[in-house]
Amino acid sequence: MNRADAVRTKNELWSRLTAKDLDPKTQSLVKRALVGVGVEPTSPNEGAILVWLGTDDPAAKALCEKFLGGAAKPKYLVATVPTIPAPIPAGGKRSAKRYHQRLPIFPGVAVGHPAGRTATLGCIVTRGTDIFVLTSATGAVPKGAAPDAGIPLCQPGHMEGCHTADAIATLVQWDVLDPLKLNASDAALAQIIPKAKRLIRDTIDEQIPFNTIGEARTDTPLQKYGRTTGWTIGKLVDASFTGIIVAEGQPFPFCDLLVVQGYNERKKPVDFVQGGDAGAALIHLDGGRATLVGLIVASMAGGYALATPISTVFQKYALTLAHLPPPSAT
Length: 330
Hints:
Layout: H1 3-17, H2 24-33, E1 34-43, E2 46-53, H3 58-68, E3 75-78, E4 83-84, E5 110-113, E6 117-120, E7 123-127, E8 130-136, H4 137-140, E9 152-154, E10 167-174, E11 187-192, E12 203-204, E13 208-213, E14 222-226, E15 230-247, E16 250-262, E17 281-286, E18 289-300, E19 304-309, H5 310-317, E20 320-321
Parallel strand pairs: 2-3, 4-15, 13-18
Antiparallel strand pairs: 1-2, 1-15, 5-6, 7-8, 7-20, 8-11, 9-10, 10-11, 12-13, 14-15, 14-17, 15-16, 16-19, 17-18, 18-19
Helix pairs in contact: 1-3
C-alpha cells in the first residue's frame, strides 16, 4: 500500500476505535487491549497497517479487521503502553566528571532542573539571532511551570545533583500535553544564557557534527546518543504511530510518531532508550556526519522507543539547526 494511503487508513482506524459512540462493551475492549495503530515502512514509499496491542487478544483483532472492512490486512505487535519519562535505572547516574558544567556542553549530555527533572540535550537550534537548547518537556520542565517565569534549564540534571547555579539556558516555550486531543510532540525550548554560550558545541558526543535535518529512512540504521545509555542503534518499525502514552501516570493520545526498535551486534532486541534519554536526538549517521530525524519522546518494553519527527518540532517553533563555531577558550 502507498505510504500516504496507509497513513490515511491508519488514521481512519484510530478514529473508529476511539469514537465516543461505541457501545460500552466495545469501548471496554479498546481500553483494555489497544496501545496504538501505525504504519510499518515496507519500502521507502510503501507501508502496511500496524496494530499495537497490550495482549494477543482475538476479539481486539476481529474488531480492527471489522473496522478496516477489507481495506488492509493489519500486522499485530504486542507491546506495553509507552511511558514518559521512564524511571532512570539503578546505576544510571553518570559521573560528575563527565557532566560537570565547566566541560563543553553538547547534544547528548544530561540537562534538567533541581525539581526532580533529568533529560537529554537533543540539539542546539537557532531562531533569528537567538540560540536555544531543544530537549524533552516532560523530562526537563517542572510541573506547573509558566513560560514567563524565567525557569532555568540546568546542566547537568537532577540525577547528577544540579543546582540553579548550573543553569545554561532559560526555558521559554514547551509543549503542554492535552489529555483530550492528539499531541504531536513533547519538546521544550530553552534560550542559552550569555555565560554558557562559549561552552556550547553543536557536535554530538563532542565529535559528530550535525549536517542537516531529514526524514527517517528504512535503508539505514537509526542511532541516538542519550544521557543514560549513550550510543544505541536501531531500526524504524513504525513510521506513523498514533496511540496512548502515559506521562507521569496520566494517559495522553499522541499522533504520527516514529517507533524505533533497538538491537545489538547479534541483531537481538535491546533497549534503545532508558529513563533520562528523553529529548535525545534521533539520527542517521553517514560518513561521520549526522542527519537529525527525530526527538526521543518515550519508551516501551521490547526495546522500543518513540520519537517525534524533527520536522514537526522545527515547523511548530520556527527553528533552524545551529552550525556553531568552536567554543572560545576564554
